[in-house]
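Protein modeling request. Please complete all fields; requests missing the sequence field cannot be processed.
Requester role: graduate student
Desired output: 3D structure, token encoding
Chains: 1
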Amino acid sequence: MNRARRLSSHARKAELLSAVFTLCGLDPTLSSEELARLVDQSRRVAERRIRKLKPGRKGTVDLDALGHVVYRWLRTSKYLDDDGRPLRLPLRGQGASLQSLFRETGHINYFSSGVEHLRNVGRVKKVRNGRYLPCAEVSIVQSLSPELVELLAQTINRVVATVLHNTSLRKKDAIRLVERVTMVPDLPGKEVNAFKLFAREQGGALIDTVNDWLERRRGNQVRRRATHAGRLTAGLHVFAFVEKNPK
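Delivered output (247 residues):
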């Protein structure tokens, strides 16, 4: 990991820690001594989890870049047949190819490893004649990776930031970020798999709609890099949860 990426990663960890300590500081019943005890206890638990998980790395996976490549593939006429279906693309070439997709989205330097990562996360498959076809609009990373750890850290921090943003707005008619939750405390265990499937379908439909809205407004990737000032990271994170109730 180069110095710039390492410093960026450390900055995100600092933001995550700030978010956690903000939550702790807002609890009037939590003394500094109790907080110190919880920090020490949490560190020991984390160390045990890390030893079990054994996170690994096969190159840095840029999930945003992969998503942008597949999005352009599925929604640009150059890469679709007359029926609107994605073309089977060669790896390289001056015309429509995976190489041209990476170039047009501003990620040509990521091309070689990016193709491997597309296959690893289930976004493309290799078909006859050495060509490629998209097979999913969702990246599935099945093993713990540094990228997923970063995503987890960002998610926790963003949840806290959203709550703090919404509660800091003084005007009653100010537009607040969406922050909602729905749950029941007594779902029968036999319904868990059905809930997983239902939540996946509904969440996937919502994410697809929001993704289309965002992608249409993000602009050209190459031009965006040249005029980065005034642009913000924006998104929606959806997840389902199932947990045991305390005894």
